[in-house]
Amino acid sequence: MSKYHAFAAQSATSGLAPLQIERRAPRPDDVAIDILYCGVCHTDIHFAENDWGRTTYPVVPGHEIVGKVTAVGSDVTRFKVGDRVGVGCMVDSCRQCKACDSGLEQFCESGFVSTYNGRDRHDQSQTFGGYSEAVVVSERFVVRVPDALELPAAAPILCAGITTYSPLKHFGVKAGHKVGVVGMGGLGHMGVKFAKALGAEVTLFTRSEGKREEAQRQGADHVIISTDPEQMAAAAGSLDFLLDTIPVPHDLNPYLETLTYDGVHILVGLIEPIDPTLNAANLVRKRRVLAGSLIGGMPETQEVLDFCAEHGIRCDIEMLDIHNINEAYERMKRSDVKYRFVIDMATLKSTG
Question: What is the spatial distance between Cα 13 and Cα 110, in angstroms, rounded to a whole number?
């Protein structure tokens, strides 16, 4: 075991502060990684503040990790010291069920092991995330970061990127399709970029007229102000897919009405009860589908990084000194970031 600097929450109200944590020595299939950058996801806030009632303290958040390999176990074949690598939302799974055998570890029948606030399958130790100097992860759950990607901007691809890329690929979005993206935060702006790169005609739904120019800069062909009944009515029956990135309960009915028959409304941000009530007629009368999607498996996570490298896609980021993480959390609650904070872990090295 080795000790490393990290930032952790000790309770739901403590905020984040320095903490020394221990990382295991590499097992035969492990990769040890010096963390250079770590993205900040809204899920980090939920766990730090125990919004979902299942946080084990202390919790070290961070599941958008990029860095360089510093050591490998004796059985590792895919990575060597010095490689640029990443770790996303998972660090293990049962590796034996149908989902795992299909490269869909996010749907592991036993439940995947989260990068933080999880339990190691071997020794039952608590997993700690990327707000730290280093991490040790099984080779299977490490991905290669292509040289064409800048490391800081690549970090959020491991959560915000794969969360939006996976459903677009799964449901078959391709050239000629018309795709609506609901919301333009960390997930939404990536959804716009991916849908456009896949050849779709992209419409962004936003509540703010002030985001029109920015949405078009991101690649949106059309912008609809979702609070304008006339604009929403004009879009009725026009779209093949909706990628809904809004993370809080909202009325799905007006959005469903913008879909054509056999259209698919995909939820990637909402994991709470739907409110207000869904009018089932919006599904039945047009054979529409309301679907959900959760990150992606390890093969697809590598695929999205390679796709971003090929198409010149990057996440728009704001670099962050880890000592300002609590302020950053408050800004995220106000949606005051375009579009993802990324911690420069060199700032952690100044922690006493």
Answer: 31
